[in-house]
Amino acid sequence: MLDLEIVPERSLGCDAWEFVLGMHFSQSVAIIQSQVGTIRGVQVLYSDQNPLSVNLVINMPQDGIRLIFDPVAQRLKVIEIYNMKLVKLRYSGMCFNSPEISPSIEQVEHCFGATHPGLYDSQRHLFALNFRGLSFYFPVDSKFEPGYAHGLGSLQFPNGGSPVVSRTTIYYGSQHQASSTGAGAGGAPLPELPLSCYRHTLHLRRCDVLRSASATHGLRLHMFTEGPGRLEAGSRSVCRVVRFGSSAQRVCAALGAPARTYYKADDKMRIHRPTARRRPPPASDYFFNYFTLGLDVLFDARTHQVKKFVLHTNYPGHYNFNMYHRCEFELTVQPDKCEAHSLVESVGAVVITAYSKWEVVSRALRVAERPVVLNRASSTNTTNPFGSTFCYGYQDMIFEVMSNNYIASITLYQPEGTRPRYAVNSIA
Question: According to its record, what are the GO cellular component terms (predicted)?
Answer without folding.
Answer: trans-Golgi network
